[in-house]
């Protein structure tokens, strides 16, 4: 039987290395670790090879250079997974090269404009018979799977509340920091009343122990644009993210105020030194993080109903969560599951059961909370 060939762009990066680690547990794959630094890709392949269930190889590849489509054809790739963020401000040249090469495309983007904009390539993808999926990450792939499960049986969805708070000792990548800073103090889409400014204010959410009370602030994610369109009556959607250490959270609030007042143009330009400053406190706090989703509306009898779900990640395993969707999609594609061609945000193709299966072996628990 022919091996299913998966090329991971940015394979040795923050999320890429974790994704490859998960994919290596699947059998029947040939995983090509790709990036601009051949030695880094080779070192990761050599480190994972002894316990890998799949074949690993490495390739020096700059996806922003010319000739990507021809390179993909030469490698006989079945699917390309793009993990090299931040995706804010990127174009779709990688996805377009996949169309030209007849290769499926999946990315881990969580930038609203990038994820929503992938639909512009839908006609090209359908004509080529390939699948282009953007947002195979915690949002909107996992968040949508949760909302769909919680909304099942409801006659109306009125509001959706989503939040993510990683542990302070959990690793954080520079591209993630830059992406967050890009909308710090900037206006965000609002399905409620009044304007929403990224990171300007904080509100408290209480997670089960050992996470407990965390502060969250408004963040820019694809869900703000996509979820109101997915359900009738355009439910109000709120999304918040937070830092475990409250003084760092309040610092973000102050930074947002400065940007909102026009005193700072774009905080992402300072991502390097801001990350270094945050890393001074890496040994503070915990390595436990959480994600929650609450759906409020009316049940089948027209009575008020509220259902909540929570994910708890310990042992520093939180950064694996954004890789679970891509791993689940590879599993389906390699097994011959026929997913309809086209270009779209990664929504509705995976169930909560798919995510739970991919999280096996990690310190990640997901459950619906008692009402």
TrEMBL record:
Q: Where are the transmembrane segments?
A: none
Q: Where is the Saccharopine dehydrogenase NADP binding domain?
A: 6-131
- What InterPro entries does this protein's entry cite? NAD(P)-bd_dom_sf, Sacchrp_dh_NADP-bd
Top-rank taxon = Bacteria
Q: What SUPFAM superfamilies does this protein map onto?
A: NAD(P)-binding Rossmann-fold domains
Q: What PANTHER family is this protein classified in?
A: CARBOXYNORSPERMIDINE SYNTHASE
Question: This protein is called what?
Answer: Saccharopine dehydrogenase
- Name its species: Comamonas testosteroni (Pseudomonas testosteroni)
Starting at the broadest rank, the lineage of the source organism is: Bacteria, Pseudomonadati, Pseudomonadota, Betaproteobacteria, Burkholderiales
